[in-house]
Structures are given as C-alpha cells and as structure tokens.
Design brief:
Blueprint lengths: L4 E4 L4 E7 L15 H9 L7 E8 L4 H14 L4 E11 L1 H5 L5 E5 L3 E4 L12 H25 L7 H9 L2 E4 H7 L3 E3 L11 H4 L7 H11 L4 H24 L6
C-alpha cells in the first residue's frame, strides 16, 4: 500500500500527497511504503526546501501511523512552512493530521469528520489487552488529538464543544470547519468521493447522505464480483466495529 507520495516539485517546494486510507505501512510488495520511509523522505528534503504543500483526500486510517506522521511533521516545522490542502475529505485520523500544518486550506465542497481515536478489533485479545489499548486511546486523544485541534481552533471552539463533536462523529462542511478551526476556504469544488470505498464508509456511524450517494454512484462502474466482495468486507468491518464499541465501552474501534 502507498499511503503517501512525496515529490520535490521545485528547488524550494515539495508536495506531499496523502490520498486514500492511511495504512500500517507493512512492506509486502516493492511498491509498498512504510512509516520509516515516510520519516526518511522528510529527512531527505534538501535544506533549500522551504515549503511543503500537503494534499489530503483521506478517510483516515491507522492511528499509530498517523501519530508518528504528526511527530515527524512537527520536527520540520521550524525550517519548512507546511500548507495543508483538504482536496476532498479529511476524516478520522486525517482530520487531526492536517492540524499539524502552519496553514490549512479547504475547498468549498470538501468535508472534515472528527471522532474519538479508533483502532481495529483485536481478535484473540483478552480483557487486559483491551483495557491497555483503551487507555492508550485515551492518552492519544488527550495528549495528541485534542491539543492539535485546539491549537487550530477559533474562539468558537471550546473543549466542551470539541468533546461533543468527538463523541458524536461530527461531519463538517467547509463553512462549518471555518467556524471552529482556522482554515481558509477555496471557492473551487473537488470530488469528495474519489478516495472513499463502501467498506471504509461503513466504518462510520453517520456519513453525510451526499457522500453515501456519491459512493453508490461510483459503484455503478464496478463489476458485480468486485461489488459483492466489497459488500462482504464492509459487513465484516461493520460487525467488528460494533463488537469493539461494546467491548471498549464507548471507546470506538
């Protein structure tokens, strides 16, 4: 899986693309990339690079990888200006990843979704392991996610309001994001369903109808066998999500 692509565009500007799901970064194929390669790519940016434009169209993904990416972006912020562009969607982990940028830009049609940090269901895990993971999620939320959101918050974003949004899986339009976060809206429109598959969408509790309809329309071009496979994956993912919500007592998976 290739969850990022870093390109030296000019002698003083680089472009970072976060398109699709942020995965664990395991190396299964030659084209796969890892979090270590992400770190090395940033470190290998020449001293002449002064601007990093980060383009995001992602439903989120692995919270471990995302937190590591945030730490690595933080290390270069003192010498490189980071501009984050939400091309279509920044949901889940992708929503707090973009908060590490100096400047955030969002297209008029783009969406952002915030919720509590999540991990996948740990099959075979006992109660002690689940409690350990739940505690880790709480720590990530308190030490990483909430500070990142609040740092970019406007006067309308209180910790109480943020906690409400995180608890309720809140989907925000560009105008709503601008009310609570320091972002600049670009009047152009982009395709917000370009990176979202049904199996990913089913992990969310209340995605916007426009997004659901867009994904369904996109599926009309998919073969019947592929569609059935995606439905199976989606149902399994949804079942795992519901089980873990019950096990962790409200700390989502």
């Amino acid at each position: 899986m290739k969850f990022f692509d870093l390109i030296n565009k000019t002698k003083d500007t680089a472009e970072l693309y976060i398109y699709g799901e942020i995965v664990s970064g395991d190396k299964w194929e030659d084209d796969d990339v890892t979090i270590s390669e992400f770190k090395e790519s940033l470190e290998n940016l020449g001293d002449n690079v002064k601007t990093l434009n980060m383009y995001t169209n992602s439903p989120g993904g692995n919270v471990f990888v995302t937190v590591a990416m945030m730490s690595q972006l933080e290390r270069i912020k003192d010498r490189i200006t980071i501009n984050a562009y939400i091309d279509g969607i920044a949901a889940s982990a992708a929503s707090f990843l973009v908060m590490k940028a100096h400047n955030i830009y969002m297209y008029k049609s783009s969406l952002m979704m915030v919720h509590k940090p999540m991990i996948g269901l740990l099959f075979g895990a006992n109660a002690s392991v689940l409690r350990e993971k739940a505690e880790w999620l709480d720590k990530v939320e308190q030490s990483t996610c909430i500070p990142a959101y609040m740092e970019k918050g406007t006067e309308h974003l209180t910790e109480q309001k943020l906690n409400e949004m995180l608890e309720n899986e809140t989907w925000l339009t560009a105008d709503e994001v601008a009310e609570f976060f320091n972002v600049q809206i670009i009047e152009e429109t982009r395709d917000v369903v370009a990176c979202v598959d049904e199996n990913v969408l089913n992990m969310f509790s209340n995605p916007p109808k426009t997004l659901v309809d867009g994904v369904k329309n996109k599926q009309e071009t998919i073969s019947k066998d592929e569609l059935e496979l995606r439905k199976k994956i989606a149902n399994e993912a949804k079942a795992s999500n519901e089980i873990t919500k019950t096990i962790l007592g409200g700390i989502y998976s």
